[in-house]
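COURSE: Structural Biology Practicum
ASSIGNMENT: Worksheet 4, Part C
STUDENT ID: 0417
INSTRUCTIONS: Below are two proteins. For each, the amino acid sequence is given first, followed by its C-alpha cell string. Answer the questions at the end about the second protein only.

PROTEIN I
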Amino acid sequence: MVVAIFGTTISPYLFFWQASQEAEESRLSHRHMHAENSDLKKNSFRTISIDTWVGMFFSNLIAFFIIVTTAATLHTQGITHIDTAAQAAEALRPIGGPLTFALFAAGIIGTGLLAVPVLAGSAAYAVAEVFKLRGSLELPASRAIGFYAIVAAATIGGSALLVTKIDPIAMLFWTAVINGIVAVPIMAATMLVVSSRREARLVALPRWLMILGWLAAALMALAVVLLIWSSF
C-alpha cells in the first residue's frame, strides 16, 4: 500500500509529461532557460517553481479530501474491501441518496476527462522521443501523425480493458504499485542528470532541492526494497 501511494504521488508518466510540457512552454514563450544571463535563468526557474508548488499544493489538498471522504463513507460502514466501482458508489448513498449514481458517475467522468489526456499524452511524448518522432500537443494532427496515433492507441487500449474480466479496482491498485517500482530508476536517472556539471551550468538548482530530490529517490527505493523483502 505504501508503494502504491508513492506510485500515485510520483508516477513515472509525470517525468515525461512535465518535462515535455516545460520544454514546449520554454520554446513557445521564449523562456531563457539556457541564456548566459543568470537573472534570466533565475526568472525562468522561478516561473517553473511557482507552477510546480501551486500544483503540488492543490493535488495534495484534493488527495487529502479523497481520503477524508473515503473514511467518512466507506470506513464508517465497515467497508474495507471494494471489488467493483458499484460498491464504491453505494457507499455514497447515505450522502447522495437517490442521486448516488449521478454523483459517482460525474466524479468518474470528471476524473477520466482529466486523467486520460495526461496519461495518453505522456505515453505519446515518451514513445515519440524514443523513436525520434515529431510530437507536441501544440501541433495539428497532420504534422504529428505518429504522435497522435500513439495517443489514440493508448486511449483505445485503455478502453479495451473494459471488456475484460479484470477487476478494475485491483487493476488501479497494482498499476500504482508498478508505477512506484518503475519510478525509482527514473528518479535516480533524473537526479544524476540534473546533478551533472553540464546541467549545473544550464540550470543551477538550489542545494536544498538537490538534497530533497536524492532523499525522495532513496525513500522510494527503500519502500520498494521492503516490498520485495516482505513478499518473500
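PROTEIN II
(use this one for the questions)
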Amino acid sequence: MNELNSSVRNVSDTALWVAYFRALETKRPDALFRDPFAERLAGERGFQIANTLPDGNNQEWAWMARTYLFDQFTMRVIQEGADLVVNLAAGLDARPYRLNLPASLEWVEVDFPEIVSYKEDILASEKPACRLERIPMDLSDVQARRALFADLNRRAKKIAVLSEGLLIYFATEDVVSLAQDLAAESNIQNWVLDLASPGQLKLMQRSSGKQLSEAGAAFKFGPREGPNFFVPLGWEPIDIQGLLKTAAQFKRSPAGLFPMTIGRTGAPGDFPWTGVCLFNKR
C-alpha cells in the first residue's frame, strides 16, 4: 500500500483516492465535516492517484457531498434507534472515530483483508467512540457474506447498513443478490447507499473509468429505474439527496452545472445524476 506507483492497481486503491478528498475538505475553514485521520490514511499515493487519473482531481465537490450525506443519514438512523451499524466495503472511512456516536453502539466494518490491515496499522493508536469490529472479507463471496449477515442479525435488534462507493462496481445481478441477502435478515432495517444514473455512469466511464477498468475496478451499476430499482428487492426509498444539489446548497457546485431533484418515485434516466439514498425495509 505504500509504494508510490501513481496508477490505480485495484479497487482497494480507490479508498486512498476518496480519503485524499476528505483530507482536503477537512483543511477548509468552512468544512462540512472534519476527518483528522484522512490525510494519514490517504498517504502520498492518495494524492498521486487523485492527480493522475483523468478528471481525478476535478470532483472534490462530489466527494464532499457524498461524505456529508452519509454522515447525515448515519446519524439519523442511529437517532432513530439503530444499535448496530454495518459498513460494507468500509474502505478508509473513519466515522467510528470522528462522529459523535453513543458508546453503546456496535459498529462493524467489512472490507478486503489488505484494506483492513492497512487501516488497523494507521489507526492503531486511536480510540473509536463506540464498539468497533473489523472483518476481512471479499463481499463477492456470497456464502461468506450470508453467514456474516445471519450472525449479525442475531447480535442486534435494529441494524443499519452503509455501502458507500460499493454498488457502482457491481454488476446488476450482483446488486440484486446483495439487496436480497440484506432483506432476508429480519433485523436489518435500514440501508444507506449511493447511486448513479445511467447518464452519470456513462460520463464516469469516459473519464477516469477507463484507467479504473484496466485495474479491475470498472464502473458497472447505474439503474435506469433509479432508487425504485430496489423496491421489488424489499427496500423502500425514504429519503433521496443528490450530490450536486447538496454541493449547490453549500456553494460548492461547479459553474454551469444545475442540480436535478428526484423524488421517491422518480428516475433520472440518461440525465447525469448521483445521489445518496436512505432505504427502509419494506
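ANSWER KEY EXCERPT:
Q1: DSSP finds ten helices and seven strands in the chain.
Q2: The first strand starts at residue 84 and ends at 88.
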